[in-house]
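Need tokens for this chain, all 254 residues.
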Amino acid sequence: MTLLDIKNVNKHFGGLQAVSQVSFNVRQGMIKSVIGPNGAGKTTLFNLISGNLPLTSGQIFFDGSPIHGLQPYQIARRGISRTFQNIKLFPGMTALENIMVGRHTRSRAGFFGGMFHSPASRKEENAIREKSFELLHLLEISQYADVEASSLSFGQQRAVEFARALASEPTLLLLDEPAAGLNIYETAEIARLIMKIKSQGITVLLVEHDMSLVMDISDEIVVLSFGQKIAEDIPSAIQQNREVIQIYLGDGDA
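Here are the structure tokens for all 254 residues:
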């Protein structure tokens, strides 16, 4: 079943074509990776999917319904969550508190209920805390629940960011360079956690420069160059694609 369908998507910044006529789909339950050299349009594409940037033209469908033109919070409520290349945790808040922030997209009590600590608000807050603890356990970082984010290692912060993204109960998770800045051991752990997320029935769309990670965990790969799609196939075929080798894998930037 197709979960995300990207059709002839374009994004122009003045005379610059950041994304040009890109089309592909993501099937439910898979890990699909988007790779390409710096400036290929990968993060711009993520920003278009998540609503952080408007399309110049084209269409994006999620679970059969159009999402182009929606605001980011509306897209998040439809079931798409994302992380960013630069970790965006609240440094003075604990790991648990950071995850609870992500859970509030599913809250119902409202501003006044929270302000006046209504019974419904307190009940919901307890439920949010309980669900956030479950995510800490899922990603095996429950021992850091009460540790401030600023005191965690880079890899631990990534895991907290994953948990916060999962707090909104997405069916599609967008991961923007989760291995950026990690050492080889932290990268292996992140790969394991991504596979664990997939095992929970969550579909993953991944932007990543670490080719070992991409080839190890991806079901399919899309390759971008200068905003255009130049290849889409399974990892073994991408590794043998001459154009990919010339434009990306062989240029030393991976």
